[in-house]
Amino acid sequence: MTAAQGNCDFSWIPVIDIKAFDITKEENEVDRNDLETLANDVFKAFSTIGFVYVKNHGIPQDQIDNIFRLADDFFAQPQETKNKFIRPLSDPSGIGYIPIGRETFEADKPADFKESFDAIPGGAYNQLWPGIPNFEKDVVEFHRTCAKLSLRMLKLIGMGLGLEDQNELLACHTNLVNWRDNSSTTLRLLTYPPYTEKEDMTPGQARCSEHTDYGSITLLFQDDIGGLEVQTVAGEYKQATPIPGTIVVILDDMMPRWTSDRLKATLHRVVPSHKYNRRRSLVYFTHPDSSTIVKPLDGSDTYPPIRYTRYLTEQYYSRGLLGEGQRGDVAA
Length: 332
What we know:
Residues 183-288 form the Fe2OG dioxygenase domain. By secondary structure, this protein is an alpha+beta fold.
């Protein structure tokens, strides 16, 4: 049995131990059999439920804890201070602060009861950084750390798909290594404020409404409060309970198009779980390069080719995050 075997339970969301391929190791140090086993496990998870818990990933816990602390510091500031960093309504793909009640994925329901701060360092965006000590430096460093894990997961996805050259997938994600103007890969700091249903929440309001994520894959760092629910293959929602030491990796909605539906992007949401308690998470949205022409990797005509920027804008529009007059050149 290889080091990677025996680590998966596919009864619900699998837990996969990637110690054999964690971000501290060079690829030439990794046994090929371990890589193939991990790739098969990842493919099985992403072709069925679209979610996986990853443990022994190599990201230091103290680095994760530090970013949670910095996020706490930002959200604890007076509202008028946070408002200085508000992201423009006309630019949902940009950066900055999103206050409570601003964002939703279900147009017929109240906006979500959450607030967030999005960071895209090194890109074309005019990123404004709060004056919190070490905020910019540590967030940028964490962004780079997350990129390493995303590239590992994309490598395993490529192997699991049986691509002759996994670089075909990795080559579309150069923004994870060389931050340029074609990057929309985003680190989101999220907080779900404490509440009482009677006093604070509108009937029908969610913490985060039902959706799939944009892009390629998402890394989700949860606290211990819970509330994330994932749609099962039977169409029911079930809790994705936080597991200490793990990162939830989510397959995003570009991947089914890219893989002729061999991989699955699954609906999920965040619901009230513990009244009065605050919930926190860190979310790393991994996007392909903006200039990427996305077409099925198997050479089929399952989906027509589309430029990633156009696909992304159409997703914003279809979900009500952009108005008709805001599509503009970004959809070209």
